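G., before I forget:
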Amino acid sequence: MNAKSLARFEARAKIIKAMAHPTRLFIVTELAGRERCVCELTGLIGADISTVSKHLSILKSAGIVEDEKRGAQVYYRLHCPCILQFCCCADEVVKTVAKEQLELSK
Amino acid sequence: MNAKSLARFEARAKIIKAMAHPTRLFIVTELAGRERCVCELTGLIGADISTVSKHLSILKSAGIVEDEKRGAQVYYRLHCPCILQFCCCADEVVKTVAKEQLELSK
DNA sequence: CAATCATTTGGCGATTTGGTAAAATGCCTA
DNA sequence: TAGGCATTTTACCAAATCGCCAAATGATTG
C-alpha cells in the first residue's frame, strides 16, 4: 500500500472511528431532526455533561457536526447530513447477520 | 433512551467499530474484488501475519466477512458487500471537510 | 511419522479510549 | 462587578485496542 492510499484509508478511518460509539450515533440521529444545545443532549443521554461535551468534540473534529455559540449555550447541528447513511449501512449488516442467525436456528 | 433503542445503537456501533481501522478498511476494499487468503492479504498489508489474522477475526465476528478453509489456507470474502458503502459515506465527509478547508484558506 | 507451511491464539508493553470529578472559561443578569 | 448558568478543559483511572513475538493448531508432503 503506497503513502497516498494509506492516507486515504486513514482519513476514512478517522470519520468512521468518530461514529463508532453508541452515544455518538445517538447524538447524530438526534441532530438529524434539528440542532440541539449541549444540555438538551445531556438530558436525552443521561451521562455527565463533560462526557457529552467530549463526544461532541470528537464529532466536531471529524467534521461531522458544527457548533454555534448563542449566548451561554452552544448549539450543535449536523455538518454533513450524509453521515446518516452510516446508520442505514450498519443496519443492513445487522439485518443480514440476524437473518442468517435465524436461518441457522431453524 | 430506552433499552430497545440502546440495543439498536450498540449493534450499529459494533459494526461501525469493526470498520474503524485503516487496515480493516483496506482489507474490505481488497475483498471487494475477490476472495483472498490470509497470506495474500498479509503480503499486501505488510504487517505481521498474526496482526492480519486478528483484524480478520474482528471483521468476521462483526459479520462483515466470512471464511472458508480450503486445504492449509483460509480464504476470506465479503459477507455483506453493502459494507463497501461505508467508504463512500466516509469519503463524502472527507470531501466536504476538505472543500471547506480550501474555502477558508482563500 | 517428521518436517513444513498457513493460520490462530495467548501474552506482553505501549497507546488510546471512555467516563467522572474538579477546575477553568465565557456569557448573562442583578 | 459579583454570582450563576452552560460548556470546555484538565487530571486521573480503568478498560480496550494495537502490534509483535512465540507457542499452539491443522493440513500437506516427503
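Residues 37-39, 49-50, 52-54, 57, 69, 71-74 of chain B lie near DNA strand C (CB under 10 Å from a C1'). Chain B has five helices and three strands.

More on Monday.
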